[in-house]
Each structure stands twice: as C-alpha cells, then as structure tokens.
Amino acid sequence: MTDKRIAVLGAGANGAAFGADMINGGVDVVLIDQWPAHVEAMRANGLRVEMPEKTVGTDVRARHLCNLAAMNDSFDLVFLGEKA
Fold first, then answer.
1. pLDDT tens-place string over residues 16-59
2. Strand bridging mode 47-50 / 55-58
3. 48 pairs with which residues across the strands?
4. CB 29 within 8 Å of CB 8
5. Contact call for residues 9 and 75 (beta carbons, < 8 A)
6. What's the confidence (pLDDT) of residue 84?
7. Fewer Cβ in 10 A, N or C end of the chain?
8. Nearest-CA neighbor of 28 among 5, 62, 57, 58?
9. pTM for the full model?
10. Are residues 74 and 7 in contact, defined by beta-carbon separation less than 8 angstroms?
11. pLDDT value at position 2?
C-alpha cells in the first residue's frame, strides 16, 4: 500500500494496536519495545488485539529497545507510542 518504512517506538497497548492496524493495512512496520519479555512474546505468538466485538491476530516484526543502537534498519517515519 505504501513504500514507507515505519517504526513504532513504544509497542505497549496503544502503540502495538496502532502498529497492528498499520500492518493489517499493508504498511511496512517494525515494533520496538523496552520490555524484552513482551518483544519475545510478540515474536513467538504474534500480536493479539482484543476488542469488544472481535479479536485480531497479527504477525509482527518486533525489536528490543536495548538493541536499537546496533540496528542497521532505516525508517521513513517513527511513531512514538508512549504514555503521558
């Protein structure tokens, strides 16, 4: 759908849901989160977004925040999904 590469930095509840929506819309997205266990769970099981009317499962590419400095990936946009 688009040739832009997007990183979602902060892939908790909100960031992961936004990222999953973009992935399901055909966008090239990488999720980056600070919690290694969460990243490993997304890698192993994909991402499940539960809504009142349905549950959507999405396969995602997830990276650890602690490895960000060593990444060679480049992104056109970075979406910051953090709590206030």
1. 999 999 999 999 999 999 999 999 999 999 999 998 999 999 99
2. antiparallel
3. 57
4. yes
5. no
6. 65
7. C
8. 5
9. 0.89
10. no
11. 67
C-alpha distance from residue 55 to each of 4, 19, 25, 48, 50 (Å):
27, 15, 16, 7, 4
Residue 6: both structure tokens together: 């997007």
- CB contact burial 3-26 (16+ within 10 A = b; e otherwise): eeebbbbbbbeebbbbbbebbeee
What CATH architecture applies to the domain 5-80? Answer: 3-Layer(aba) Sandwich (3.40)
Q: Which amino acid is at 16?
A: A
Q: How do the domains of the chain map onto residue ranges?
A: 5-80
E-strand ranges in the chain read 5-9, 28-33, 47-50, 55-58, 61-64, 77-80
